[in-house]
Amino acid sequence: MKSLSIKNVNKFYKLGNKEKFQALSDINLDFTKGELVSVVGESGSGKSTLMNFIGGLDSDFSGDIEVYGTNLQGLKDKQLDKYRKNKVGFVFQSFNLIPHLSILDNVTISLTLSGVSEHEKVKKATMMLEKVGLGNQLKKKPNQLSGGQKQRVAIARALINDPDIILADEPTGALDTETTGQILEILKKIADDGKLVIMVTHSEKVASISSRVIELSDGKVIRDEKNKNYKKYKTRKNKEKLEASKTKNEKQSLGFWSAIKLAFHNMWASKTKNFLMAFGVAISISSLILMLSFSSGLTGYIQSMASQYSSPTIVTISKKGDSSDPFSFVSPSPFTREEIVEVVNDLNNNALQITDYKIDIENDVSYGYMAVTGLTRTASITYTNSEDEELNSSLFAVYTTPKYYNSSNLIKGEISKENEIMVSQGVINQFGEEAFGRTVTISIDFNGTIIKKSATITAIVESSMFNSMNVLYIDYDFFSRTVYEETLQATGEGVELEPSSIYIETDSQETTNIINNYIKTKEEYSGSMEEKLATMFSQMMDTFGIALAIISGISLIVASIMILVVLYISVTERTKEIGVLKSIGARKKDIKLIFTSESFLVGLLSGLVGCALSLVSIILIKIILTAIIGFAPITLTWYYFLISILIAVFISVLSGLYPSSKASKLDPVEALRRE
Description:
- This protein is α+β, with helices and mostly antiparallel strands and about 675 residues long.
- Among the domains are: about 270-300 and about 540-675, no CATH class; about 310-525, no CATH class.
- Helices cover about 45% and strands about 20% of the residues.
- The strands form four sheets. Strands 13, 14, 15, 16, 17, 18, 19, 20 and 21 form a nine-stranded mixed β-sheet that branches.
- It starts with a strand and ends with a helix.
- Mean pLDDT is about 85; it is low at about 235-250.
C-alpha cells in the first residue's frame, strides 16, 4: 500500500507585477513505508516547497497529496494540525529546539500538546532519548549540547508521537563528517523499522546512502531512481523499534494546567523582563488597594466618630443656616418658639402616626446652641496663670453641651453645670494643664452685646473633629440665662436665646430611627452637628475616592498597554518557536492558550506583588500616622486584596488577547524561516 501519493501538484507564487511564478510543476510521486528518500536539487528548485506541502505546513497548492488514503488538499486547519501532530515528524537543519526548555521538555512538548499525562510523557520521552543516546542529558538545555546531540533531540521529538512520515530538511547540513554519519545511521534505522523518511539535501553522501533519490529542477522532477546498493538492517527478533507507542488519549488537546506549566517555563526564561513588567503593574494595583483602604478607613473613622456623639434615644434637629454665610454648615439658623411647635406637631402627626409614642414638647424637648466665630463674631477665654500672666484664647466656636453628651465623651472631668464650662484639648494646650479646674473669664460678642462671665473649667471634651480647635462647651440653661441677664443689663431689654438645635428624647431606638429618617426628607432640617460634619467629610471622601479611582484607572490602563506591548514584542521574538510548535501539531487555540496563560501568570504575579507592596505600605503608614496624629484612618480588608488580584489578572489577560491571537495566526512556514 502506498504511504504517500502526490498527483499533479502545482504551486504558483504571485509576483508584485501581477505575474505568477511556478514553483512546482505537475509533480507526481508515490512513496511506500520503509523508504529512505533523498530529495536533491539546486536552491530554488522547489524541494522545501514540496516538503512543506507533504508536512501540512502549507496547503496552498493545486493537485492531490494523499497520506494513507487521506487527501491533504481541502483539509481544514484543525485537521492539518491533527495530521502534523500524529502523522508526520519534522527534523530541521537548524534543529529548532526551544532554547529555554530542557532536553526532556523539548521532546515531551509534542505529548504535552496531545494532553498526555505527566507520568506517561516523561516515561516515553526518557525512553526515546535513551534510544538516541542521550539518556544522561535529560536536564540539560540545548545550548549545552553539541550539534549532533541537538539533532538527536530533534529526531527524538519527531518520533515521540510515532508518526508515519519523517521529514528531514538538511538534517546533516550543520554537522561535521563524523556526526553526519551517526545521524544518517539513526535515520536509516528509522526507515528500516517501517517508516517513510524523506530528506531534503544538497549532500551527495546523504543521497548515496538513501534507498531512493528524487531530483528536482525548476519545480519539476527530472530524476527518480532507486539505489540498487541500498541494504536494510536486519530486524531484531524482539522487534525493538525507535518509536514510542501511540497515545490512547482521544482528546489530544493541550490542557489548562499543561499550558500554565509551559507558560511558566517560558516566563522563567525571561524572568527579569517579566518581573519588571509585573512590578510596573503591581504599583498600579498597590495604589488601588491603598486608595480603597484609605477611603474605607476614613469613612469608617468619620462614621465611628459621629456614632460616638449620639444616643439611641436622642433625636437632634437643626435648621440649615444661611447659604451666604461661609460658616453656615456649622452655624445653623435659630428656631423660633412657633417653629419648634410646628416641628413637634409635624412629627407627631406624620412621622409618628404609626406608633403609640407622641412627643411631649414640655418634657421630651430640650435645646442647644452653637455659634462659630467669624468676621462678625468674637469669643474668647481669659485666664490668669499661677505666675500672674494673663493668657487669652480666641474661640473657634461656642457650643452648648449636647443632650447626648456624657462621661464617655470626656477626656477628663465631669459634665458642666451652673457656672461651669468644658473646653476642647486645644484650649488646654494653649493654657497648660494647670488651667483645668481653675476659674476663667469668657467673653462673647452676642449680636453686638459683649457678654462676660466667670466660670470654672470642669472637663476636657473628647471630640476628635474639634480637638485641635479652641471650642467652649457650656450648659444651655446657664448660657441662656447669662445672655438674658447680660443683654438686659447692657440694653435694658433682655434677649431670649433662640436655640439652633432641638433635642427630642424618645422612648426607643426604633422611634429615634423613624424620626431621623423622616427628618432626612425635609430639605430645611438636618441632624446633629457631628452628623453634618460626618456627612460633609463623607461627601469629601466620596469625591476624593472618585479622584483616586480615576487616577488608579488611568494607571491600570497604562499598565495594560505596557503588558500588551511587552507580550507583542515577545510574540515577535518567539516567532520561530511558534513555528516549531505549529510544525508538531499545535492548534491555533493551543498557541492562544499558551500566550494567554503567560498573561494570566503575569497578572497573578502583578496582583501578588501589588498586595505585598500595599501591605507593607499600609503597615508603615499606620505606624507613621499613629506616631504623628495618634490614629491611622486606614482599613486593612482582605477582600480588597482579592479584588485587586482579580483586576490584575483581568487586565493582564485582556491585554494579552491581541498578542495571543497574533501568535496563533502566524504562518508556520514563514515563522520557521524567521531568524
